[in-house]
Write a structure and sequence with these properties.
This is Flagellar motor switch protein FliM. With 331 residues, the chain is an alpha+beta fold. The chain has three domains: 29 residues, no CATH class; 195 residues, Chemotaxis protein chec (3-Layer(aba) Sandwich); 70 residues, SpoA-like (Surface presentation of antigens (SPOA), Roll), CATH 2.30.330.10. The protein is built from ten helices and eleven strands.
Length: 331
């Protein structure tokens, strides 16, 4: 990842150039010189940029689905978005996790291995407080979870996994289930310390409480489905064909839909003054002859031509021709 200058560093650089402390020509010379990039073999980048982009898309969808699900379940304002997607050694991820947090360890069947979802205690307790009828306040006492709190949180996290499965269904038919709920990351050993993992950080706001949800995906677990994360493969995949029974059901429901059918007897143009002077029994002359066919519109679109008539005691219109695109008839 390239270094990005902060606004303060940019201002300092511009100030140094304007005062003469730094020469622009020297900067150009340094830029033109061949630079050596240090490669850390302990931190091997095993995911391609294409795969990282695909993982980002999947979890952006997961964030949207989770926002909708939690908003309905907790009945409060919820906003979740992808903050970053990084690949790093598993050991580095574990060291970055707080000593006391909530670690939802789950198995993504049929994949062989385990994922972990680290949830900031502020976010988890805001959810718990809302589930128990509170206002969604965060109370950080993760080291003293009661059996009732553990049960409620486990059920809440399992529903998150259902949303996780839905977000991944375009890549793999996954059936994740919760394995354990851990609070100390030092007791959690998913893979070897040097194994590369992808960490997706989700910025989460629940009511007035904010925090992070981090999802750790080990490379060794998702290695078998990495070819499916190619954007080119996604574009080549055909849409799933509907079952015949499903198509018949859709057709049947569409046929029951109601449509407005309007028959135009004719049109006329009058001035505003003439319109204001209209009174009962006045006659408006239409610009259409009696022998001309009537225009029949379905919705707002002209579809047929017809002639007026009568069926028993009711006024009716007989369709005489079918309109094609552009307002022309089949003749």
């Amino acid at each position: 990842m390239a270094d990005v200058l902060s606004q303060g560093e940019i201002d300092a650089l511009l100030s140094a150039l304007s005062t003469g402390e730094m020469d622009a020509e020297e900067l150009k010379k340094e830029e033109s010189e061949k630079k050596i990039k240090v490669y850390d073999f302990k931190r091997a980048l095993r995911f391609s940029k294409d795969q990282i982009r695909s993982l980002t898309r999947i979890h952006e969808n997961f964030a949207r689905l989770l926002t909708t699900q939690l908003s309905a379940q907790l009945r409060t304002f919820v906003q979740i978005s992808v903050a970053s997607v990084d690949q790093l050694p598993y050991d580095e991820f574990i060291r970055s996790v707080p000593k006391m947090t909530l670690l939802n360890v789950f198995e993504p069947t049929p994949l062989d291995g385990r994922f972990v979802m680290e949830i900031n205690p502020n976010v988890a307790y805001a959810m718990l407080d809302r589930m128990l009828g509170g206002q969604g306040k965060a109370v950080n006492k993760v080291e003293t979870l009661t059996e009732i709190e553990t049960k409620i949180l486990s059920q809440l996290f399992q529903k998150k996994l259902d949303t996780f499965r839905e977000a991944w269904e375009s890549v793999v038919d996954m059936d994740p289930y919760m394995d354990e709920l851990e609070v100390n990351p030092q007791f959690l050993q998913l893979v070897s310390p040097n194994e590369t993992v992808v960490v997706i950080s989700l910025s989460t706001v629940i009511g007035e409480t904010s925090g992070m949800i981090n999802i750790c995906l080990p490379h060794v677990v998702i290695e078998s489905i990495l070819p499916k994360l190619s954007v080119h493969l996604w574009m080549q995949q055909k849409k799933k064909e509907r079952e015949p029974i499903e198509l018949e059901s859709i057709k049947s429901n569409v046929k029951k839909a109601s449509l407005d059918v309007v028959v135009e007897l004719g049109k006329s143009q009058i001035t505003i003054q003439e319109f204001l002077n209209l009174d009962r029994d006045d006659i408006i002359e239409l610009d259409q002859l009696i022998e001309d066919p009537l225009l029949i519109c379905v919705g707002e679109h002209p579809k047929f031509l017809g002639q007026p008539g009568k069926v028993k005691t009711k006024i009716a219109v007989q369709i005489t021709d079918h309109m094609i695109e552009g307002g022309e008839t089949n003749e």
